[in-house]
Amino acid sequence: MHEEALVGILEAADEGFIVFDRAGLCVLVGRRLGELFGVERTALIGGPEADVLKLLASSCEEPDAFLGAVRPGAQGGSVCEIELKRPRMRIAVWHAHAFQSDDGDAGWIGVVRDVTRERSAERRAHQLSQRLEAITSTDALTQLPNRRRFLEELDREHGRAARAWDSYAILRIDVDGLGAINAEIGHPRGDEILEGVAQRLRDGRREYDVLARLENDEFIVLLPGADAHAADVVASRMRDAVAASPFEVGESVRVSVSIGAAVWVPPSGEVGVDVVKRAGDSLVAAKRVGPGSTHVDAGSPPKGP
After folding, report:
1. Are the CB atoms for 167 and 264 separated by under 8 Å?
2. Contact at 8 Å (CB) between 219 and 210?
3. At 17, which helix (H) or strand (E)?
4. Which of 121, 73, 123, 119 has its CA nearest to residue 92?
5. How far is residue 59 from each of residues 76, 147, 154, 169, 247, measured CA to CA in Å?
6. What pLDDT is recorded for position 1?
7. Which residues, listed in sequence order, are joined to residue 211 by a DSSP beta bridge?
8. What CA–CA distance (Å, rounded) separates 162 from 154?
9. How far apart are CA 230 and CA 236, in angstroms?
10. Which helix (H) or strand (E) holds 262?
């Protein structure tokens, strides 16, 4: 009577189950297990363990992986996640447990639970998280990394350079006279120019340099491993790329950029934001010279006593 009640409870549950006795014969199969694996219970009950498990494995996306993990482990239990390919694609979690009753019965039971909906929800949450992360770390207009993302990359590079006793450089780039351009031809076309400038700056950087939009009409670039010479070379190349030809935004508009560079050289007590500030001071110096100018602060290790 107790066994009948237990089987009734198991039959009503969302989980499927299968029971093997001491001799390795299948003695019980739950309704839900047959539904999940797409097999008739009559094809399983009374069958030897090897044949029954092989039949169940035929419904799995990776049959060998299922057969390798389906039985209880040395400690008496095991858990694995499986993908079922028929009767329809599902994801399930399989639990296997050995048992031994007071009256001497022994064997093991497999319990399977459909987690397709849960895994789908987890995937959707992960995808949403990735989209939100992309939104919060990407400039909407230029699709470049924004200030937040740039500062994260700068922290990583500063740590690497300090450990490796290496240098790096930062460029701050200002689009000359964009306010006057916006006033003359309108902000929508000014935004088109900013998009075009971003693309030309991409073309002028080295492959591993990090280009970001800092704010308004200012861009910033992280040059890993760069010294003053490399910073000057990359700055000149990016400046020339912007000035190479007019931007066609309903009319031809020539644009230039001014660039300030700062180099971090070990040993130094500076942190990354200190180098960003020095690059800003360098940009001010470049703009004093005139549109399309570059100024490089080479940095230097602190002098000893």
Report:
1. yes
2. no
3. strand 16-21
4. 119
5. 25, 50, 50, 57, 60
6. 42
7. 221
8. 12
9. 10
10. strand 257-264
Residue 31, Cβ density class (10 Å: 0-12 exposed, 13-18 middle, ≥19 buried): middle
pLDDT tens, 275-298?
Answer: 999 999 999 999 999 999 999 999
Q: Are both 2-119 and 138-297 of the same fold?
A: no
Q: Give pLDDT tens digits for 223-237.
A: 999 999 999 999 999
* Residues 137, 139, 143, 144, CA torsion sign: negative
Q: Enter the tokens of residue 66.
A: 């299922």
Give the Cα separation of 140 and 142 in Å (integer): 6
Q: Are strands 257-264 and 294-297 parallel, antiparallel or unpaired?
A: parallel
Strand-by-strand arrangement of the 106-114 sheet: 26-29, 16-21, 106-114, 90-100, 77-84
Is there a contact between 261 and 169 (Cβ–Cβ < 8 Å)?
yes
Please determine, for residue 211, whether its predicted confidence score (pLDDT) is greater than 50: yes
CB distance 78 to 67 below 8 Å: no
Report residue 64 as tokens.
């060998």
What pLDDT sits at residue 135? Answer: 67
Q: What is the pLDDT of residues 100-148, one digit of tens each?
A: 877 778 899 999 999 988 888 878 877 776 666 566 788 888 889 999 8
DSSP string, 210-229: EEEEEETTEEEEEEET--HH
- Of 153, 194, 148, 154, the C-alpha closest to 174 is 194
Q: What pTM did the predictor assign?
A: 0.58
With a cut of 50, say whether residue 87 has pLDDT above it.
yes
Return the domain boundaries, the chain. 2-119, 138-297
CATH 1.10.287.600 matches 2-119 = no
CATH number of 138-297: 3.30.70.270
232 or 74, which is more confident?
A: 232
